[in-house]
Amino acid sequence: MRREFLFKGKWLFENSNIPYSSSGAECGLRIKKKLFSGKSLYQQIEVYDTIKFGRILTLDKIFQTSEEDEFIYHEMICHLPIFYFLNENKKLPEKVLIIGGGDGGALEEVLKHRIKKVWMLEIDKMVSDVSVKYLPSISRGAFKDKRANVLFEDGKSFIEKNNNFFDIIILDLSDPGGPAKDLISEKFYRNVKKALTKKGIISVQSGSLDCQIDLVALIFKRLKNVFPFVKIHHAPIPLYGLGEFSLTIAANFNLPKKIREAIVKKSYTSLKPTLRYWSPEIHNASGILPPYLVKRVAI
Ligand code: SAM
Question: pLDDT digits over 189-208, tens only?
């Protein structure tokens, strides 16, 4: 039965109208089984067991994260801002905010550091409930950490209530459609900046450098209108299909070409056994884009 099922394995294709995606290409994954399907107030939530990526989470048929390669995305979106902050302020951040991040992957990465408190603002509790049940290897118990303060509400309204409070804000959001549609506006980024401390820094899930390059350029431009320093980092995230993916960093302080090993060494050494992608070398190298992309994003 199993052999027969495998050979007849079905293919799952990503939603072809992903916001700002003009690729004319679709990514397909061969699936073993659909494990969950449900509709929340905000989106269609599904979990599939796939041959290549293990279990994956999809929201409105857009691939969000997978057991196989979630570490690349979550290590980069969290450790880039934290190590820039450490490099600049010679100390770890104390208060970190994650907006989105329902699968718990970013929360787990941030909590690897000796950080006092992490807030996570996820609009859709069902995403977290489903992720903990079907994709526990992504959050690895992070939701139970006593430093985690997980709130299920709209990040857009939450951010307006905060002033000069967070050292780091991580925008680990779905694509700008659905509940995240207003969370790439300049107004939102101004509210994010207002909620940051003076030496604060943010990281943004800013889309694919291949099939969402217009989105990458738009987010970069809007962040540039709000923050003095903005830098695009890139990483290969196989689940997100063609080309590399972008994580955009914006700060009130100058983002150096290289973080200084002497300053980050102690924190890196303690985290190193738990990291599979981020390293000081990757941090520095991933901030360099090839000339064609520098031109395309008008950096
Ligand atoms: N890692 C994924 C990626 O790279 O695209 C995204 C992580 S997570 C699944 C994205 C989360 O953002 C979802 O759980 C979604 O519910 C949440 N989200 C979307 N809009 C939101 C809003 N306005 N406030 C808070 N969370 C929001």
Answer: 999 999 999 999 999 999 99
| pLDDT band, residue 4 (cuts 50/70/90) | very low
C-alpha torsion 25→26→28→33, nearest 10 = 180
Give CA torsion, residues 112, 117, 120, 121, to 10 deg: -160
The b-or-e profile of 122-143 (16+ CB within 10 A means b, else e) is bbbbbbbbbbbebbeebbbebb
Dist. CA 4 → ligand 1 center (Å): 37
Phi-psi region of 63 (alpha: psi -120 to 50; beta: other; left: phi over 0): beta
Q: What is the mean pLDDT of residues 126-155?
A: 98
Q: What percent of the residues of the chain are helix, what percent strand, and what percent coil, each to the nearest 5?
A: 35, 30, 35
Ligand 1 residue neighbourhood (C-beta within 6 Å): 42, 59, 64-65, 73, 99-103, 121-124, 127, 154-156, 172-174, 179-180, 183, 205
Query: Cβ(20)–Cβ(176) under 8 Å?
Result: yes
Mean pLDDT for the stretch of residues 102-109: 98
- Residue whose structure tokens are 């409070």: 165
- Identity of the residue numbered 230: V
- pLDDT recorded at residue 6: 39
Q: Render pLDDT for 151-164 as a digit per residue (tens, 0 to 9).
A: 999 999 999 999 99
Q: Which residues are catalytic?
A: 172
CA distance 276 to 7: 32
Mean pLDDT is lowest, of 2-16, 80-94, 162-176, for: 2-16
- If you measure from the C-alpha of residue 5 to the centroid of ligand 1, how many angstroms do you get, rounded to a whole number? 33
Nearest atom, ligand 1, residue 124 CA: 16
Closest atom of ligand 1 relative to the 181 alpha carbon = 20
Are the C-beta atoms of residues 90 and 287 closer than 8 Å to each other? no
